[in-house]
Structure formats: C-alpha cells, structure tokens
Amino acid sequence: MPGRSDACPDCGSVLPPDAEKCPACGRDVDRAPAGRAPPAPSAPPPPTDGRAFELLRRVARLKQWSENVQGLGVTVPTLPAWAEETIRHGPGSEAWVEVVRGVERLAQKRLLAALEAWEKSTRNRLARLEAYSVDSRLEHEQIDDVLHAAHQGELAGALQTYQQVDRVVALKERHLDQAREELERLVSLLRDMEALDLPPPVNPAEAAEELERELRGGHLAPLKQQLRAIRLQAVNRLKTDVPNFVADYGTFLVRERGDSVGVELEAGELARAAHSFVRGHPEEALRRLRVLLQVHGAGFVRSPSGGRS
Question: Is residue 248 within a helix (H) or strand (E), and if so which, with residue range?
C-alpha cells in the first residue's frame, strides 16, 4: 500500500510517506513492502553436509569432556574456534574427519591415564577413611564403574561418575578432618589448663584416649557432641580462673618492676593473652599464658585462692 506513515525507531518522529530519511534525526529509513515484515538479520547457513553434522557433534563432545575434568589435572585437547567454523560453513568437511579422530584419540588417551591415576589416589584416600571406620564400599564400586566405562570409551558417563565420587569422598574427608581438628584443639586446651594449674573438667590424658577411640570408631556425631560438652565445661571454669590468673601474674610483674626488673615484654604478652580470652579465643589465651609461664614465671606464686603454690 503506498503512502504509509511510520515512526522513526530512533527518535519516534512520524515519518512522511515514502521518506528515505527521518526529518528530525536524519536516520536512514528501511521500508519493507506493505504487509511484509522487514527481513531478519542474515545468519550463517547451517551445514548441509551430514558429515559436517557428525563432526560438529564430536567436537561438542570434546568440549564436554574438557568441561568435566576439574580436579584431574589434565587438559583435554579440542579444536580451535576457526577450525570449528571451517567445518560448520566451509566446503570439504571430509578433510577434517581424520583430524577430529586424531584429537579424540589423544583426548581419550589423556583422560584414561588421568582417571587411572585418580583411581589410585582415591583408593588411598578411602583407606584413610576406612581406618576411621568410615564406610566406603559404594565408592569402591563406583570407582570400578568409572574405570570400566573409561576403558569402554564411554567417557561422558565415566567423568560424571568420577565427579560424584570425588565430591562424596571430599565431603567425608572434610567431616573427619574437622572432627580431628576439634579433638586436638580441645585436648591442647585441657593440657594447657593443667600446666597452668587451672583444674580442667576432665583428665587430659584420659580424655585424649577416649575421644581418639570414638574418632577411630567412626562415631563422628556423638564425638562432636562430646567435644562441645567438655569444651563448654572448660570455658565456664576459665571464666573465673583466667581473670584470677592474670591478676596474680600482673601483681607478680609489678613486684618485679619494683625490683628494677624489665618486664615490658612480659606485661605486653599478659595483656594480649587477656585480650584473646575476652574476645572468645580461650585456646590462644592459654597458649600465650603457658609460654609466658615457661619463659618467665620461675618465681611466680599464685595467691592462696589460686592453684599454684
């Protein structure tokens, strides 16, 4: 239909019929015939060669392998972007068949070697977990599935199972390591209390033996409850004992300074220990007090209400 009036897509001004430029902003106007939409932006034609489709499918598979090898320490070879574009749009895709096959063979060889190395290291990790009575029978079976699939060339499934096993093993290791760290921190706190003559709620040696037995038995949930309960008892005692100890040691330093002994470093360390305790770090506070006592406290005597004579 002649004589249509449209709006400029840039400024919105009404365009006169058959105008080639917008009178307001000067933009060139492309008009489509009446009743027909403007032509869509041209897109590169898809490959029409069936062999090209197959090659592109295999190139996409290489990319998928490359994206699923995190943690294996291997780089999967892939085709550069220009080669993929040539296969997609260029003639003679049959010339790329052997190239893609060669890249696949190299990728499969690298992935198989990496998965075999992962299998050995993961079985060692599982052996450590099993020493703490952590069940890992399913993971052993899945590792066998990974290697079997990889040897059969089913690398997509092998890599998917590998990632699942690796996540589960890492999670079990993290739980075990956290329990081990909490146990050692608590036992250290109890031993520092004993060294400072601040009575711990339980005997450190006996507690260490019992808690280690629970850890080795794989009883992580009850172990963590036990660790929290003993630590709470210890901290509640320290809320009274640490301020008294700091006050007694401060009196000792004042007396030494009155005898012309330089105690600036010791006073600073005592203050840092007290500050750590106030900020909720009893382990650090007691560690500082124990070192201070070992290095400097030869003549230190607690008050009658304290535990040191």
Answer: helix 220-258
pTM of this prediction exceeds 0.85: no
pLDDT in tens, 273-296: 999 999 999 999 999 999 999 988
User: Using one digit for the tens of pLDDT, what is the confidence trace for 33-76?
Assistant: 544 555 554 444 444 456 677 778 888 888 888 887 878 888 88
Amino acid at 194: E
Token couple for 60: 């996409």
Cα 197 to Cα 308: distance, rounded to the nearest angstrom: 6
Evaluate whether 289 touches 277 at the Cβ level (below 8 Å): no
Can you tell me the distance from the alpha carbon of 62 to that of 43, in angstroms, rounded to the nearest whole number? 25
Kindly state the tokens that stand for 248. 């007694």
Residue 149, token pair as written in the block: 């699939």
Return the structure tokens found at 276.
Answer: 């750590």
Q: Is the dihedral of CA 109, 113, 114, 118 positive or negative?
A: positive
Count the Cβ atoms, other than its own, within 10 Å of residue 12. Answer: 10
Alpha-helical runs (H) found in the chain: 50-67, 81-89, 97-131, 137-151, 155-195, 204-216, 220-258, 264-278, 282-296
Structure tokens at 286: 């007691």
User: What does the alpha-carbon distance between residue 177 and residue 64 come to, in Å, rounded to a whole number?
Assistant: 33
Q: Which residues of 78-102 are buried (b: 16+ CB within 10 A; e: fewer)?
A: bbeeebbebbbeeeebeebeeebee
- Cα 288 to Cα 269: distance, rounded to the nearest angstrom: 7
